[in-house]
Design a protein that fits this description.
By secondary structure, this protein is α/β, with parallel strands linked by helices. The chain contains twelve helices and five strands. Among the domains are: 88-132, no CATH class; 152-287, Glutaredoxin; 295-329, no CATH class. It has helices at residues 2-32, 88-104, 108-136, 144-147, 152-174, 188-204, 232-236, 263-277, 282-287, 297-302, 310-314, 316-325, and strands spanning 178-183, 207-212, 227-228, 243-248, 252-258. It has a five-stranded mixed sheet, covered by helices on one side. A hairpin with a 3-residue loop joins β4 and β5 (252-258).
Amino acid sequence: MQTRRILQAAPLIVALCTYASVAAAQEQSFLRGSRQGWWFYKEEPDPEPPAEVEPEPPPAQKPPPPAPPPAQVLPPAPAAAGPQPFSVDWMQENLEKLRKQAIDNPTRENVLAYLYTQRVAFDKASAFSLATQRYVMGDPLIDETTRRPTATFAANAMNEAASSRQEQVLRKVANDTGITFFFLSTCEFCKQMAPIVKALAQNYGFKVLPVSVDGLPMPNSPFEEYIVNAGQAEALGVTSVPALFLMRPPQDVQPLAQGVLALNALRDRIAMAALNAGWITEDEFKSTQPVNPMPSLAGAVSSAAQEISAQELQDPARLVAYIRSKVRM
């Protein structure tokens, strides 16, 4: 019985002995530190601060790109000077504006502004016309009456003289040329043209060959005989009748007209066609014109245009002297 109680109390005994051993050890430790008095308690030293690690330097930054140069501000261009007031250029630029302004808004001020400006233009034109008459007199190179008289009796006399010379030229051309006359039997214009062509034959000796495009005769034709078109009209490019061609055997052909012409106009065209073909000379052709032959200013200066300097061109007096020096009367 007693033995059982001892066994039951064994854990308590062990625990008690363990506690006693610990207490004895603590007492011995206390006794060993008694000499330190109240300073027996030692504080643990503060832990050493960790060594400062120098931070790595930040990566080098790229320098910013250079700033663009400031934009160059150019001074405003000076305004172009306009034409001189009331000059021809100014009139051309402003007179029409004033007219439209007066029409759109016909106030007293707008209408008078236009009319007064127009009067200035009229006066300038009158002054120019008077100066032209003044300076033309006595200078045959620019006096148009030298080429063609304005007096009626003189103009008529010149016309008669030119007509006489033209008749001589036409008779010369008629010696070895003829006129081909294409017509249609139903063409009214062909009927009107036929007597004119017949007059050429009678007056100057032209041989006339009438050709019927449709193969039928022309009613009341002055020509008793004709031939039927056999491709001649197509070969010559006839697209309208009456059609007239000046022909010189064996193959020379000069077109005159595809349509109606008066006798005088037809005579002029025959002379021009003969000149183009080389059947008459330039002088012969000029003799048929009702004007006095005068030297050509354009031809005179164009052949030597490189001889005049820009300075001379800007000087009116030197320009006139240069042109006159190139003309041979």
